[in-house]
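Continuing the batch. This is chain 6 of the set; chains 1 through 5 are on the previous pages. Same settings as before, nothing changed between runs. Recording input and output for traceability.
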Amino acid sequence: MEIEKDRLKKLFPNLAEEVFRGESKVRIDASSVDTADGDKAAIRRFAGFSATVIDFVRRCDTEEEAKEIISFMEKRNEISGEYAAEIWEKIKKEGLRGLGPKKNRGFYEEEDKPQP
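Output for chain 6:
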């Protein structure tokens, strides 16, 4: 099926961006059509995932820990000073869990387990 570039961009802007950029946001690990093989090699939801400052802060138990992480990432230029201030302001207003529920050790492994 052929579709004009402009029409694709209009109908499916995100898909068009991925196609024309040449990189996919979804990693496909399975190469078999056998469902038994597919279950063994289940696609991991977090494969290739790169944690953000918010992901790290959600693992914290105290605001002091969160402040350390935010400062560290800002010093390494992984986040801007403006974004760091925005995160810290949200924590001061809404508390540490204002960024989302706590992520405990093993969170990603548990989330990646195939569901029965």
